[in-house]
TrEMBL record, chain A:
Residues 3-401 form the Ketosynthase family 3 (KS3) domain. InterPro entries: Beta-ketoacyl_synthase, Ketoacyl_synth_C, Ketoacyl_synth_N, PKS_Beta-ketoAc_synthase_dom, Thiolase-like. GO terms for cellular component: cytosol. PANTHER family: 3-OXOACYL-[ACYL-CARRIER-PROTEIN] SYNTHASE, MITOCHONDRIAL, POLYKETIDE SYNTHASE-RELATED. Pfam families: ketoacyl-synt, Ketoacyl-synt_C. Belongs to the thiolase-like superfamily. Beta-ketoacyl-ACP synthases family. One of its GO terms (biological process) is fatty acid biosynthetic process. SMART domains: PKS_KS (SM00825). It comes from Streptomyces oceani. Gene3D superfamilies: 3.40.47.10. This is 3-oxoacyl-ACP synthase. GO terms for molecular function: 3-oxoacyl-[acyl-carrier-protein] synthase activity. Keywords: Transferase. It comes from the Bacteria.
Automatic annotation (TrEMBL), chain B:
It comes from Streptomyces oceani. It holds the Pfam family ketoacyl-synt. Gene3D superfamilies: 3.40.47.10. SUPFAM superfamilies: Thiolase-like. Residues 14-215 form the Beta-ketoacyl synthase-like N-terminal domain. InterPro entries: Beta-ketoacyl_synthase (IPR000794), Ketoacyl_synth_N (IPR014030), Thiolase-like (IPR016039). Keywords: Transferase. This is Beta-ketoacyl synthase-like N-terminal domain-containing protein. Transmembrane segments: none annotated. GO terms for biological process: fatty acid biosynthetic process. GO terms for molecular function: 3-oxoacyl-[acyl-carrier-protein] synthase activity.
Amino acid sequence: MSAQRVVLTGIGVLTSIGNGVDEFTTALREGRCGAGPITLFDPTDFRQQIACEVTDFEPERWVRHTPLEELGRASQFSIAAARMAMADAGLEPAQLRDRPGLVTVGTTDGEARELDQLVESEIADGPERLDPTAVRRLPAHRLALSVVRELGLARAVPSVLGTACAAGNYAIGDGLDAVSSGEVDYALVGGSDALARRTFAGFSRLGLVASDRCRPFDAEREGLLTAEGAGVLLLETLDSALARGATIHAELLGYGLNCDAHHPTAPDQESVTRCMALALADAGVKPADVDLVSAHGTGTRTNDITESRAIRALFEDGPPPTVALKSMLGHSMGAASALGAAASAIALSRGFIPPTVNHRTTDPECGIDCVPNEAVEAPLRVVMNNGLAFGGNNASVVLGRYEEASR
Amino acid sequence: MSTAPAAQRARGPVITAWSAVSPYGIGRAAFTGGVRAGERTDAPVDPETWRSPDERACLVPDFDVRAVLGKSGTRGMDRVTGLAITTVRELFAEAEAARCPVPAGEGTALVLGTTLGSAQSQHDFVRASYEGEKPYDVPTRQMPYTLMNCPAAATAIRFDLKGPNSTVAGGRMSGILALGYARRLLATGRTERALVGAVEEYSRSRAWIDRHSRRTAEGQPDPRLGEGCAVLLLEPATGEPDADVPDASADPARTPLAELLAIDIRADVRGDPTSTLRESVSQALGDAEVSPEQVWAATSGELPGPLGADERRLLAELFGEPATARGRGHELLGDTAAVSGVFQLTTLLARAAEDTEAADRFAVLTSVDEDGMIASAVLRLLAQDGGS
């Protein structure tokens, strides 16, 4: 079967700067920052106490058929984001119920937050007294399975990809292939992670957490802010979207995956360039055609230098504007690149570049235009969205503004 | 050592090599020997080493990461990562010994299934945060091991695997999910070949998690937990070169052992897992254009408890006792969770290699879990003349 064009017709997001596509769009345009005091675990005695939490989350609004106590926070997020994406696409679960589908959720930590709490109670009461209901929330595959069961998607494949902080892009790529080949009629793909003490403690000890704000590409950047969130995209073929008169946010043009096979935590510049080149080749797009890069952009010294060098190596005639959404959203781990893809689609359809906020002076070693602090109106045609992960798991996704003429 | 005859031309991707680290020991020969002997593998769990609530479990014998892999680059390496690296090492070494080495580099993907990664590594890390003098007193060297992608990523570093490197967190469905995912990577030409497998470690933390989440009925014996890793080499079929992927096809030096024909994965959304499984098997058979009487072996996931028993009964009803008897054996390795699906398959492949009647007949794999996941796969077994 020849490959079909795949479009994004539904966006569901939960973030520290706003939930749902409309609020998220406004927040991106305004350059909101989601940083705030940590409330989801006790930050006493940590050197930094700031993170980006999802506020105004009422799980009972979204979870209707599953007992809430069976779901960890990351699974509740993925259900909420999936429902939002379907509503945004103008679809009812019943319309997809008997059609072959793929529900792939990327995650770094799965329900790590649940394990954090279980370990705390084990220290207090011993391993014999753990709450079975809480223990059953742990398996990572529930992040996708819970969506499928809650929405009653009888023919959907529930799948979770644990490729750390690039997992959202991995999921989107897999959905693109499954829809494009005709293996499935639709895909709900993205990422979800809830704020976990374990991750915060690790990054804190590594000296990678900023004290107040995340400032990617800034000369005085201190590091990342841990965050939580979820982004789920509804993908379908162009023919399907046109047939039902759906609003098309963007077309998915292609993606690239590779592995550094080099170092457990430090990214490899050449390999990152190669991943982006793979994505552009898959999309059939030349570097000169890329109007915007949504960088992984964590705000750590190493990532931002390595990634910006990798970008400059790819764009021989100078890189396009390169923004870091983590300045607003924090690092939402497995959700990060899914939220990056959602923001890229919004940027394409609404014609603006979301800014890199909290910015003071661009690090000359980075040498890119990060569109500081203020959104810029721009008619974008092609955006590349990066996700890089510990373990050298790289994934880049290329999105294009939907245009009727086939590329 | 020949290309497949015309009658065996395959269209789906083919499995051309496999290896395993299991309670039978390290490597494919140990696994094949274990399947042939058909003996139980459970043994007492050393209380001092493990401080586990389990009295018995099915462990990889004498598996000490640094003893097996050497001291270089293994300091602090957790068990699940060691199991994955050792399995891929064995697969590469066995292919080398058979004079058809598997290339590494950019053309080789690794797709590895897991439940949680290492529950123990995660547990120890956050416990340090609660018990340290300061909450950030955590062992940062261990941080990569808290991530689910560590076994796949560390294996890539060790063997220079620069293709797509994907971790599928599928619990008991990991094997079939990983095959489905890798099949898409091959079909789209994103990789020339894929190492596809799954890994599960034994640990005290896993033992407690399992104990609390288990739903076996009162009065039934506790299941024995098992561990290990199994990895298959999946390549595009040689039969019909894909115009879009001109260079990608199985190395003719390797004998295809089985062809992946169909996969169906779904969730039980109406509280009737057995009927859902029946539909899933029926869908997979239909997609593969295989009728039940053509099925030589049917293997269930051997989930402990009544749900697993229902699964076994359904397969016996659909395919008959002789076929399900040929599909058994991997339960001797204990409840191997994430790696159970791949162990189902490697057990079948080991058995098919010793039975000439298996050639050009079909195998059905199924798996169910307590959360409502359901998976089926249909494969064609190919003549393993001469083996590899």
